[in-house]
Amino acid sequence: MTGKVDTRQAILDRAAELLQERGFNAFSYKDISTHLGIKNAAVHYHFPTKSDLGAALMRRYRERFDAWVAELEVRHANDPVKRLDGYLSVPLSYLRNGRKVCPIGVVEAEFDTIPEAMRDETRAFDARSRAWLAEVLEEGRASGIFRFDGSAADKALLITAALQGALQVARAGGVRLFFVALRQIKRDLGVAASVPTG
Amino acid sequence: MTGKVDTRQAILDRAAELLQERGFNAFSYKDISTHLGIKNAAVHYHFPTKSDLGAALMRRYRERFDAWVAELEVRHANDPVKRLDGYLSVPLSYLRNGRKVCPIGVVEAEFDTIPEAMRDETRAFDARSRAWLAEVLEEGRASGIFRFDGSAADKALLITAALQGALQVARAGGVRLFFVALRQIKRDLGVAASVPTG
DNA sequence: GTCTATAACGTGATAGAC
DNA sequence: GTCTATCACGTTATAGAC
pLDDT higher for A137 or B194? Predict the structure, then answer.
């Protein structure tokens, strides 16, 4: 009802963009405040330290992922291909929205330099995301839709690592490389590429 | 003959460690100079700007890779499995030597914040590395040793992206995850894991 | 909840002596 | 080739007015 948007959320929105575009160490409170038309100190009011900001940011990623999963389960509860495509559409949206990379990947690349609270939230998000994909893969294999050797957990790890890496590689080598990786992932699962490939 | 080691090389050695441990933006000239027991200004003598340092660093990675390939070709010219294992031993050494990540991955994560000269060298290194792996995969498939669908270039891209991502994931989730990814990569190629798996 | 003002610090970089 | 000394700047963070 108020024309005013929630500043706290707006800060996190901008921080998320900056994280995935530049990394945690390469953006500042001023980058955020300028973008919102406020001052440096106002951001500190909402997040006293950068550690607070970073941890809240990763926590929100995880919460949103959980909400996204819950919604997807309702719509495509019994369709492994649709669930997989839903999962793959996340990094795809990162790529299309300014060649952003996976937040987990950036944070892990800077892991030894970021606040401990942020690392904890990252671990939680990472494990959650991988576990859900493993579930999808297992069901798809049981249905005879996916084909792969080894455990679903192992295969899920490989796929998430590849997606994370492919988003990064696309920065240096061009977006086409991400689509190639995506296609190969599906090929290796024995399914045709149904997500746009370029 | 002189007891003195080449300072320029020592700087690059330390910079390489710091890059793979902390990222390009999170280390300083002082981190390097202190480690070598010299002063900040001495480092600037060898590399006037950080851009110079970063570009020289990535160039050296590529040159060393080329030399490494040349040596490996002599020893294992006709053994795709040994050549693949050689390739996989590189990220493995990163992992074991202090949970370092792939230099290409870190740089790509920070891509929009690093000097253009450094980006150019990164692109060159990345393309070189992937092209060589594709060659190995193609020969291995022709010999009936590897099994995979799609082009060797596509498969090479997927594998390099996965290795890059897996090194990062191992930071948050533990080194075991890298070995799991490694095993799955080989499984998907239809070969048994011959590199230590944990 | 946002502002002004400022503190305290680390950074990349340079000048000039040795 | 390395040193001392210093500069200009950006950063996180805080105090206190409004």
Answer: A137
